[in-house]
Write a sequence for this structure.
């Protein structure tokens, strides 16, 4: 099957034939070789040495790096990774890529005029190479000046992003630590991934729920009869992880198939996992999932199929929710299957059948996170848990719900090894001066960054509180790419001008780096020492992520950069506590060893032995194989109450009622999103599904040979249904223009019946490549979907991103084709 999977991966979604793939790979090899010949691209240690292999790891998996004469020449996956990621080769490419940031660079206008520089020309690529001393003096000087003359509220250090794997190389913790030592800064809360879920779940089940161990795969294989993947693409999203992925879910799928478990995929796209399991594909209209879940609840209620005992013992507020289902709630609409059929385009008889199927046998409901990365995204996780509660199998083997089988393989049983903890703490703010309330919040919801820039001093609401946006002047971004991840690029470009100074620390010339004033060249993971686990939950092994090659050009590790800055701010000793990176690796290991020795769970050798060997693997005890989430709670809901107000699953929330938000009512509710296909006077006819990229992790590896596997006409692929394409005269491989009132981009058409009509897909993360930065509605030549998406909070409760809430149109592009240039470094770089 694994071979199958690999084959599929190569030929899937973008209908890439095997032959085309093979010719693509051979040109890739040529491409990689050409990259290696870039002038000046040489490793430093050039002493003649026999080639060797070093085991290390990345978001894409553990691998052996081959090193020959100081050069990282090739890689092969770790032999225990039974489903290696096809994108892994890109990890080698980024080290030597043409978009590598080689030297510290400063925007010419900023170098000449400092904070008085014209900000409209940011992004024009006119950079000047400077010495490290000059760059660090500029950064430290501004941080010091702002702290002394303004205050910590003038610096935005909410830097968000997926950086690289490794417990030491966490540049966001380093930034926080440095800023806290310097007197503080404005930070950010939650994330782009699941902020709506993280906002609502504490009220419903008393925790985030989508983190930590989940009912094990074994429990599902042995007990589940029907499994529903709702807005989830587990084959795709499990390919990567924050720690090193163990890729164990793929074996799980094999076993599910063997066990004959019935699978249903509710998704506008027919994804690979669905085909693999011969699943029923329900091609739902995007953003109508809450209506579908609620209508299934209506059937369970009116046909008296729901689990009365579970509802009585384990939930709170069912009466209010029932009233809502029956048309006696706040909107006075009865939530019949016919009502939902009109919204979802899933026939009423199918909705009734789903209700029956779910209660007749053991059912596991599995949700991804796309349905909450939407306007009113809080409603989805709540409706989902409400439905699972009415089915009543929560806490039973193979039953209930899971909001994270699609990432980190959280259903893999855990070994007894302690989890590794980060090598450094961000600490707390050294309060050089008080932080008056009127100076604004010390932390903003992460996706409200542009709102903050547009409305300094203004009030916003978040999770029952009223807060003030601070007046920030500088931002320092490290380990993230906001010019890919944030929504509504044109609005963002304008708002970004509010910053007097933008500092970006990365190893590649992303759009974020191009739109910065000061650019600091960091190393990739393979140019420094670190340590990481395989499997965030399974903890299958610890891997010594030993440095593979010396830092290229003038790059420095994040730790070296922050240490140098700390020294300039007179905070060197406090920042490092005298430790090198390898000392911190040792400390991380020592802490794990101390726990393991005290609890006598696993035997860990001395650090030197581990480091020399490069890996320790752990066994999974049989008792961990069949763990069931919420089993204790179900068994005794009084003794093992949930940490909610009532100790039960809250189907109605009094704390949320008190907030009085019309955009987040006190029980799961269907609320029409800002933009969707069911809208009466919709401005554009197609729903843009900007889900996560199959062959990348966000924008990472975009500038590598991996691009050649999936790009169409040198651009990001845009999947479109056969009928929609035909109606527009679009053929497979055509360049198309995707547009709406917010922006426009080019993309390469992939015509397919694996996407339902009226929905198009442009995966997030293509590097932003504007034609003309002076144009407020400039065309992105390459296919950054966030030129199209709206920048609105999910609701006042979570203020999460609503990235998926987006209507567009597509047309065949017939104008002169602009060359994609974003992967070449700026002229002087
Ligand atoms: N439309 C739309 N937009 C979305 C989403 C969506 O579904 N639709 N999803 C959202 C989600 S869930 C997320 S998590 C975000 C992801 O957004 P990001 O996390 O910002 O995306 P990445 O491409 O992972 O960016 C990481 C950056 O860190 C750099 N980097 C890697 N390692 C290091 C290191 O060791 N040191 C330094 N200094 N830099 C390093 C990389 O080169 C890269 O530029 O995107 C969000 N945006
Ligand atoms: N390969 C790869 N894996 C990744 C990432 C990556 O960039 N690349 N990113 C990681 C990160 S940071 C995160 S947060 C997770 C994200 O995990 P998710 O949010 O679960 O992933 P998405 O791909 O955005 O969406 C999952 C599925 O939902 C479907 N979908 C979209 N809109 C709707 C809708 O309205 N209704 C329904 N029913 N389905 C819908 C999409 O077609 C897609 O197949 O993935 C992680 N894993
Ligand atoms: Mo994410």
């Amino acid at each position: 099957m694994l071979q199958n999977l690999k084959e599929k991966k190569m030929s899937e979604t973008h209908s890439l034939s095997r032959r085309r793939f093979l010719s693509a790979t051979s040109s890739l090899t040529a491409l990689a070789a050409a990259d290696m010949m870039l002038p000046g691209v040489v490793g430093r240690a050039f002493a003649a040495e026999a080639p060797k292999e070093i085991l290390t790891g990345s978001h894409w998996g553990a691998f052996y790096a081959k090193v020959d004469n100081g050069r990282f020449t090739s890689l092969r996956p770790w032999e225990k990774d039974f489903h290696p990621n096809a994108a892994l080769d890109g990890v080698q490419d980024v080290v030597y890529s043409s978009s590598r940031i080689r030297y510290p660079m400063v925007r010419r206008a900023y170098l000449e005029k400092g904070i008085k520089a014209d900000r409209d020309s940011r992004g024009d690529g006119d950079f000047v190479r400077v010495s490290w001393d000059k760059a660090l003096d500029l950064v430290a000087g501004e941080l010091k000046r702002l702290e002394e003359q303004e205050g910590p509220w003038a610096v935005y250090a909410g830097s968000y992003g997926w950086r690289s794997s490794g417990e030491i190389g966490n540049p966001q913790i380093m930034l926080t630590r440095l800023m806290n030592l310097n007197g503080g800064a404005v930070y950010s809360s939650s994330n782009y991934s699941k902020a709506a879920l993280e906002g609502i779940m504490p009220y419903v089940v008393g925790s985030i729920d989508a983190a930590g161990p989940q009912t094990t795969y074994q429990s599902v294989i042995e007990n589940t009869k029907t499994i529903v993947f709702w807005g989830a693409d587990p084959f795709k999203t499990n390919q990567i992880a924050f720690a090193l992925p163990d890729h164990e879910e793929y074996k799980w799928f094999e076993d599910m198939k063997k066990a004959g478990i019935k699978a249903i995929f509710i998704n506008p796209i027919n994804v690979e996992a669905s085909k693999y399991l011969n699943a029923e594909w329900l091609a739902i209209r995007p953003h109508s999932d809450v209506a579908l879940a609620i209508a299934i609840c209506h059937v369970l209620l009116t046909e008296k199929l729901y689990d009365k005992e579970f509802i009585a013992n384990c939930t709170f507020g069912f009466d209010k929710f029932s009233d809502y289902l029956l048309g006696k709630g706040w909107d006075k609409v009865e939530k019949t299957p016919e009502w939902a059929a009109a919204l979802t385009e899933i026939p009423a008889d199918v909705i009734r059948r789903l209700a029956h199927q779910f209660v007749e046998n053991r059912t596991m409901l599995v949700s991804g996170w796309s349905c909450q990365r939407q306007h009113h995204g809080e409603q989805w996780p709540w409706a989902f848990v409400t439905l699972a509660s009415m089915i009543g199998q929560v806490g039973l083997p193979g039953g209930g719900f899971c909001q994270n089988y699609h990432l980190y393989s959280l259903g893999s049983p855990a070994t007894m090894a302690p989890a590794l903890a980060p090598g450094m703490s961000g600490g707390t703010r050294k309060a050089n001066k008080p932080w008056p309330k009127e100076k604004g919040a010390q932390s903003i919801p992460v996706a409200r960054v542009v709102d903050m820039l547009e409305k300094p001093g203004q009030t916003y609401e978040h999770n029952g509180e009223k807060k003030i946006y601070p007046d920030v002047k500088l931002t320092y971004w490290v380990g993230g790419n906001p010019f890919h991840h944030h929504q509504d690029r044109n609005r963002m470009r304008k708002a970004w001008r509010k910053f007097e100074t933008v500092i970006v620390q990365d190893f590649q010339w992303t759009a974020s780096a191009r739109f910065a004033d000061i650019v600091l060249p960091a190393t990739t993971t393979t140019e420094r020492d670190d340590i990481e686990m395989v499997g965030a939950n399974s903890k299958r092994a610890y891997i010594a992520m030993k440095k593979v090659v010396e830092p290229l050009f003038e790059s420095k590790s994040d730790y070296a950069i922050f240490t140098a800055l700390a020294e300039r701010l007179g905070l060197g000793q406090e920042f490092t506590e005298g430790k090198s990176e390898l000392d911190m690796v040792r400390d991380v290991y020592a802490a794990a060893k101390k726990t393991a020795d005290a609890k006598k769970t696993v035997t860990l050798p001395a650090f030197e032995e581990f480091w020399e060997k490069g890996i320790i693997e752990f066994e999974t005890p049989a008792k961990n194989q069949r763990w069931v989430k919420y089993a204790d709670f179900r068994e005794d809901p009084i003794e093992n109450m949930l940490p909610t107000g009532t100790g039960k699953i809250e189907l109605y929330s009094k704390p949320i009622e008190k907030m009085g938000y019309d955009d987040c009512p006190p029980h799961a509710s269907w609320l029409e999103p800002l933009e969707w296909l069911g809208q009466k006077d919709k401005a554009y006819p197609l729903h843009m599904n900007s889900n996560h990229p199959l062959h990348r992790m966000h924008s990472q590896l975009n500038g590598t040979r991996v691009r050649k596997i999936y790009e169409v006409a040198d651009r990001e692929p845009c999947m479109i249904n056969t009928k929609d394409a035909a109606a527009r005269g679009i053929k497979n491989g055509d360049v198309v223009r995707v547009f709406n009132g917010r922006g426009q981009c080019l993309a390469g058409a992939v015509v397919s019946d694996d996407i339902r009509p009226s929905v198009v897909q442009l995966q997030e993360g293509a590097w932003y490549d504007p034609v003309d930065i002076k144009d407020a509605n400039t065309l992105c030549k390459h296919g950054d979907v966030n030129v199209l998406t709206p920048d609105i909070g999910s609701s006042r409760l979570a203020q999460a991103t609503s990235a998926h809430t987006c209507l567009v149109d597509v047309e065949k592009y017939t104008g002169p084709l602009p060359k994609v240039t974003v992967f070449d470094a700026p002229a002087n770089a």
The first helix runs from residue 2 to 11. The domain at 195-416+633-659 is CATH 3.40.228.10 (Dimethylsulfoxide Reductase; domain 2). DSSP finds 29 helices and 30 strands in the chain.
